[in-house]
Amino acid sequence: MARTRSVNAVVLAFFFSWLAALTAAASCRTITVVSGDGCASLASRCGISGATFTTYNPTPNLCSTLAVGQKVCCSAGGLPVPTQNADGSCASYTVVAGDTCTGIACKWTGAETQA
To answer: What is the domain class of 28-109 according to CATH?
Structure first.
């Protein structure tokens, strides 16, 4: 039984390192939403058509939930995933004047947030 756990741990470690490498290799080119942006202006800034923009950013309600500071894709792939510190610990962030929860979440994850 101990050997089985050891083999499973090795397989899982390999899988997660492979998945991390795949995610990093599959990151899209991004731009950041600024005040006044909509999907049409973002597509224009990306230099792609609106249809291509929605292909790269397939969230159904993206255009109605854009937040300043949010990252969107301008090419195929996924939004970049934050990396851990070299020692494997979680990265930290110091809040500064003007930060919002939405802004911090978008900055660190590139994810969409809802109010």
So the answer is: alpha beta
